Amino acid sequence: MKLIEVASIVGGVVYGDEDLEICEIRPPEEAQEGDLTFLFQGGTTKAGVIIASRKIEGRSGIVVEDMKKAMYLLLKKIAAARKEYCVSAQAIVEDSACLATPCGVEPFAVIRRGVKIGAGTLIGAHCYIDEGVLIGEHCELFPNTVVHGNTTICNFVVVHANTVIGKEGFGYVKETRYEKIPHVGGVVIHDFVEVGSNVTIDRGTVGATVIGDGTKIDNQVHIAHNVKIGRDCIIMGQSGIAGSSKIGNNVVLCGQVGISDHVEIEDDVVVYAKSGVFKSLKKGRKYSGIPAREHQAVLRAIARLYAGRQISK
After folding, report:
1. One domain for residues 181 and 282
2. Pick from 56, 81, 106: which residue ends a domain?
3. Residues 293 and 177 in one domain
4. 135, 151 in Cβ contact below 8 A?
5. In whole angstroms, how far apart are CA 102 and each of 8, 83, 85, 87, 117?
6. Which of 48, 81, 114 is the C-terminal boundary of a domain?
7. Based on the structure, what is the number of domains in the chain?
8. pTM of the model
9. Looking at residue 25, which CATH number applies to its domain?
10. What domain range is 17 assigned to?
11. Whether residue 262 lies in the annotated active site
12. pLDDT tens, 70-127?
């Protein structure tokens, strides 16, 4: 790709040789002549082409206003160009499954009867898509993903490897021994959701577990039965949300946050890492600690705890 072509994708201003051919995109410390790099901060690089917020003397490059957006636009363009849409002869696609055109299915994936998959969707190797699952357009399921029945995945959803969607939840009743409560509900994942690797999303006992538009879920997160998550939330790694809890819109859960069952977290809340949430949280506030309290109150309590004490190194 030529420098001028990259500039048209990222919406930047070219300086230097606009016809310069770019071989690869690499980090600043690894880039060599012929490579392109994004220089977010000061430092040195051997890259022949630099995208930055200012002009770098002695190099060719592109000046952009928003570095992160420029990276997103370029990498998205490159990733889209690498996709191939074909159904492998080594995949198992049952007769009544309906795959739109184009649609990609990699080797050893299993797509059961009654499944419907929209145009532009890719199903990775060794995925298992159970009977009656609905998957929309322009989705991508990476290898070894398992999607159980009564699951609806809408459009532009990405699910990374080894994730399990729609398994039975962890619900039991004590008789002479623990007996499993049947879970007959489902899962609904709305548009533009991204689900990380090794995530488990349980189906509802009755009704559905719901993930709202634009929500991003990191690796190794557990979402239990009948949880409702709103729009544009960020849920970071190793967090767990217990059954029937409700998460509002634009909520951020940092790493290893634990949320008890039947809790409601209102819109625009931030819960900091390793917090334990045992009761409902109010809109627009920041929380931390175990149990989670308003973050400023926690900081004041810590300051009082250590006031006048000399902390050993």
Report:
1. yes
2. 81
3. yes
4. no
5. 27, 11, 6, 9, 10
6. 81
7. 2
8. 0.85
9. 3.40.1390.10
10. 3-81
11. no
12. 999 999 888 776 677 899 999 999 999 999 999 999 999 999 999 999 999 999 999 9
- Position 195 in a domain: yes
- Find the Cα–Cα–Cα–Cα dihedral 134, 135, 136, 141, rounded to 10°: 180
Q: What is the full DSSP assignment across 170-190?
A: S-EEESSSEEEPP---EEEE-
Half-sphere exposure of 152 (CA within 13 A, CB side): 13
Measure the CA–CA gap between 170 and 189, rounded to whole angstroms: 20
The one catalytic residue in 160, 190, 225, 262 is: 225
Q: Name the residue among 219, 182, 178 with its Cα closest to residue 203.
A: 182
Planar angle of CA 54, 56, 58, nearest 5 degrees: 160
Helices (H) and strands (E) in the chain, counts: 3, 37
Work out the mean pLDDT of the chain and round it to a whole number: 94
CA-to-CA distance for 242 and 258, rounded, in angstroms?
Answer: 8
The length of the chain is 313
Find how far residue 61's CA is from the centre of its chain. Answer: 31
Sequence-distant (≥ 6) Cβ neighbours of residue 100 within 8 angstroms: 117, 118, 119, 120, 121, 137
Structure tokens given for 61: 């490059």
SS3 298: helix
